[in-house]
Every structure is written in structure tokens, then in C-alpha cells.
Amino acid sequence: YVQRGGCPTASDRVLASEMGVAAVSALMEDGSGLCVCKKNNKVCTMPIEDALNGDDKQAVLEKYEVFKTLW
User: What global pTM score does this model have?
Assistant: First the structure.
């Protein structure tokens, strides 16, 4: 938030709480090697390898094109 120049919004705080709950739940179920993410507007876990391999590259590229057009 310092980089962005502002305070966390209410939705930032809710998302952080939801991700924290998902992380602890995954650990309690022996879910090591997972990362918590927001996909299709839902908090979920996925293997770290999948996240690093970028299974959603197309979605990222589409967003990049939109932002490139705007800026």
C-alpha cells in the first residue's frame, strides 16, 4: 500500500482475511505445496507449480492488451 500510495480498502481487508482462512485450512488438511489465489472471483488453492507455470497466460495477455490500449 505504500507503493500504491494509499490505505487498504475494505475489500482488500476482506480478501486478505479470506485468503488467510483458505491458507490455514489448506495447511490443516496437509495441503503443503499449495498457494492461495483468487480465480474466477473465488478464493481457492492450487499447486505452486501450476501457479508458476502460468496456466492463465491467455487471461493475463488479454488484460495486458486492455491496459496497453488505455495507457
Answer: 0.66
* CA–CA distances in Å: residue 42 to residues 13, 15, 32, 39, 49: 15, 10, 20, 5, 20
CA distances from 40 to 8, 37, 44, 59 (A): 22, 10, 9, 11
- CB-based burial label for 64 (10 Å; 0-12, 13-18, 19+): exposed
Q: Which helix (H) or strand (E) holds 45?
A: strand 42-47
Q: How many CB atoms lie within 10 A of CB 13?
A: 11
Residue pLDDT, tens place only, 23-36? 999 999 987 889 89
Long-range contacts of the stretch 61-66 (C-beta < 8 A, 24+) = none
